[in-house]
Amino acid sequence: MQIAEKTNEGLKRQYEVTIPAKDLESRIDAQITQVSGQIRMPGFRPGKVPKNLIKKMHGEAMHGDALNNAVQEGVQKLVADKKLRPAMQPSVALADDYAQGKDVVFTVELEVLPEITSVNIEGIALEKLVVEPSDAEVEDALKRFADQQKRFEAAPKTYKAAKGDVVVMDFVGSVEGEEFEGGKGEGMQIEIGSGRLIPGFEDQLIGVKANDKVKVEVSFPEDYNVAYLKGKPAVFDVLVTEVRQPQEAAIDDTLATNLGLESLDKLKEILKDQISAELQGMTRTHLKRKLLDHLAANHDFEVPPTMVEAEFGQIWAQLEHEASHEEDPAAAVAELEKDRDEYRRIAERRVRLGLLLSEIGQKEGVNVTQAEMNRLIGQEAARYPGQQQQVVKYFQENAMAAAQLRAPLYEDKVVDVLLGKAELTERSVSREDLQQAIEDDDETPTGHVHGPGCGHDHHDHEHGEGKPKKAAKKTAKAADAEPKEDAVKAEKKPAAKKTAAKAEATEASAEPEKKPAKKAPAKKAAKA
């Protein structure tokens, strides 16, 4: 095999590879020898079919297999011999004039990862904003917790339902005088003011009593999940079977003992620990963003354009998805277009930070153990009851999906190493000050970054970067409902994921992974 370098500009490489025709013929002859004992043909004893006859009958298919294998092995040998580190899968093109019997000539184009020769992680000075949970916060949390423990008891038959009460009802819905699928239910319980039902439905239950029959007139939202009901006016015949009033849970030792705790003080201690963990998470988020800012400001090197383009594509796809749910999608997209260059800059920064974290992780010996991977896979599988085995098998068989699952933990470990070396100065602030500092950081690009082996060509983003100028407004669509309640429930989906323009600075795919030859299928709900 002959290799000729055609292009060596920056991170771009192009090679012309030539495989002599005789080498390909040798491969085909080897295939014929291998299968000759298995070929059956009338007039010939098993294993005695002439090789030239086998070649005549199956030569075309064998030639295709031999050619594909030769090119694949040629690319692998090229990468190994030249000690290349491809940023993405190389592009391979067979010469237009190739024909059987001729030498195999093909070009290989790729971008290589940059050599990061100077990594400076010593003497990093960062300010750590610390918040201690206050007694007032603990008391507020205790009140919210007690509110969640409230019970609902049947009210007198003459009692009129008010906001905060639970109404138990049977209902039948109709559109244009006709009942429709999913528009009927019995014994449905709804807390007035919860916002679980179609807008306007719950308000019309205020004042009802047990055994009342009422007609509720509403219109389905324009973004309702059932196409033929979108925007349609509907009438629901409702029979109220019971009204229940909330009974507030007393904040005393009984509240704690009902949970298996020894006292109210123990419950307060647990709540304080939860608040403390939340505040520590906010502290780390802010500290990590400042760390990434420092790394970005002190390291500048060329990054592979294909990686940047893939990263930008993911950011842009998420933004377009969110814009499609705006009141005026076209206007939202037009607004995004104004910031296209800024988002591309964010994509470039993400890639650069990912490569840098990857380099640091390798030099510091950071790794994710198999036990840790098993825990991650187990946690992911637990999200899909009844499908745990399939989820585990998926990650075991798809190296790229496993790399994406591993990446956040790997990045956290790299960040821990860096923070361990940094000079940290603590400053006590209020929760409001810390929250404001985090929001201010949203104006700078410090988000989800990526390194080699992350699968940039199909990675699902769940986190983004700093906000260039304006982020698309969030909308909430009516979600699918339980059977028999479809036409009444309009529970909102979680707010749309934060855009690439504004999100927490969390996981990054910085781990140095070997790139698998095949792309993994898109991970079910598995962003990321």
Question: What is the strand and helix layout of this fold?
Answer:
Elements (H helix, E strand, L loop, with lengths): L1 E8 L2 E8 L1 H16 L14 H31 L9 E4 L9 E8 L13 E6 L4 H14 L2 E4 L11 E10 L2 E14 L21 E7 L13 E15 L5 H5 L6 H35 L6 H19 L5 H9 L2 H24 L6 H13 L5 H10 L1 H23 L1 E6 L2 H11 L87
Parallel strand pairs: 5-11
Antiparallel strand pairs: 1-2, 2-4, 3-4, 6-10, 7-8, 7-10, 9-10
Helix pairs in contact: 1-2, 3-5, 5-12, 6-8, 8-11, 9-10, 10-11
Task: Give me a quick take on this structure.
The chain is built from twelve helices and eleven strands. With 528 residues, it is of the alpha+beta class.
Task: Describe it.
The chain has 528 residues and is α+β, with helices and mostly antiparallel strands. The protein contains twelve helices and eleven strands. Strands 6, 7, 8, 9 and 10 form a five-stranded antiparallel β-sheet that branches. Strand 1 and strand 2 form a beta hairpin. Helix 3 crosses helix 5 and helix 10 packs across helix 11. The longest helix has 35 residues. The C terminus is likely disordered.
Which features characterize this protein?
single chain, 528 residues, alpha+beta, four-stranded antiparallel β-sheet, 12 helices, 40% helix, extended, disordered C terminus
Number of strands: 11
Strand-residue proportion: 15-25%
What is the count of DSSP helices, taking H or I runs of 4+ residues?
12
Instruction: Sum up the overall morphology in one term.
Output: extended
Structural class by SSE content: alpha+beta
Instruction: Let me know the largest β-sheet.
Output: 5 strands, antiparallel
Low-confidence segments, given as residue ranges, are 443-487, 490-528
Q: How much helicity do the residues have?
A: 25-40%
Rounded to an integer in angstroms, the radius of gyration calculated over CA atoms is 31 Å
Average pLDDT works out at 82
Distance between the termini: 41 Å
Order of helices and strands, N to C?
A: EEHHEEEHEEEEEHHHHHHHHEH
